[in-house]
Hints:
By secondary structure, this protein is of the alpha/beta class. It is built from ten helices and eight strands.
Amino acid sequence: MKNIVITGSSSGFGYLSTLTLARKSYKVWATMRNLDTNNAPKKDELLKIAEKENLNISVIELDVTQDDSVTTAIRTIIAEDGRIDHLINNAGYMFVGVTEAYSIAQAKEQFEVNFFGIVRMVKAVAPHMRKQKEGLLINVTSIAGRLSFPYFGLYCASKHAVEAYSQALRYELAPFGIEVSIVEPGPFGTNLLFSGPEEADRTAFDGYGEHKNTPQAMLQNFDAFFKGDDAPSPQLVADDIAGLVEAPRGTREERIVSGIDYGALDYNEKVLPIQRSLVRDAFQMPHLLEIAQQKSVKNVIPKTKDQNL
């Protein structure tokens, strides 16, 4: 039985992916922080569902911002299973506000989870996959990792960083039989939208006058849409992740856009040949490219005129 490690399994895409993949007969290591406090109810909920449905789910403490926590969790998994077949880096949260008004400490905090958390996980897991000579890394970014939205500056920057990091890993790990894919969700009605703090630099914040209220208006607009009948289901992301896991080796897409794309699909399709030409021609490293020609994204729900978020 192949196993899967998922970060941020207490809610949203991570929670749904845990159940979706466990129901497909994978062993899932559902990781989350604060198992004995804030996330204790979520742990109990997952384990009760697993017992009722006879699913192979193990819930384990893991905080992607802490080196020791990551190392301890991965050692525990390796000690029990001897390997890690798939890693889904899903943990993250979102700052929405006046970008200038976030402090340097807050900017570091945003990157600590969204970017350095993935770096920690890769450094802990990749050596085992290289030893196995196979594995799959799925990094969940966002269409905000390809496009940039006003008042989402720090979040977009962190996701852009993950996109670049993941692209490089896709090339560098390919000779070891390890595949890297990126899932780029559009807007979905999860708790991510309201997960960030308010801006710490109130002087800068007040300097924006009436414009300082725009981020909250945007959030309220998103929230109203998510409560409507036309809002896409977050299950779409879990299904796309499961599709990558179940796809045969050598056929996995480089990028998948899930949900409303805001033009990210077109962006990815136009950039893909430029990126491949860079590696193949400019850097003379054609051996790092995939043999099979793959699509850049799939499973897109087109934006309609009523979805003016």
